[in-house]
Design brief:
102 residues, four-stranded antiparallel beta sheet, alpha+beta
């Protein structure tokens, strides 16, 4: 399993990182993955989709507040305006997948 730092380097190489907005979102995605278990949770479902929860919403009675990543598209409001639909949630999933890749 790769470290988060190794995953960041590998994912960065695949992105238009010269775009400041993409670089900023990747930095926020790095923070999300770095805070798993203490700020965020990312759950992979059997059908290959992901749900990204912020810990504060997990404490709500209705913890259905999450962003879903399905077929590379995120349900967050930022995704449609993000270059290549690369919001921080989608990038966080990319980082997680890269960490798990061999």
């Amino acid at each position: 399993m790769k470290t988060l730092a190794q995953a960041l380097l590998n994912v960065s190489a695949k992105l238009p990182i010269e775009d400041k907005k993409v670089a900023d979102r990747l930095g926020r995605a790095y923070d999300i993955v770095g805070q798993l278990g203490s700020g965020y949770d990312i759950v992979k479902k059997n059908n290959g989709t992901y749900k990204v929860y912020k810990e504060s919403t997990l404490l709500l009675e209705d913890n259905s507040v999450y962003y879903a990543i399905v077929d590379g598209m995120c349900s967050c409001p930022d995704a449609p305006s993000a270059r290549g639909n690369m919001c921080k949630h989608r990038l966080a999933v990319m980082l997680m997948e890269e960490m798990q890749a061999e």
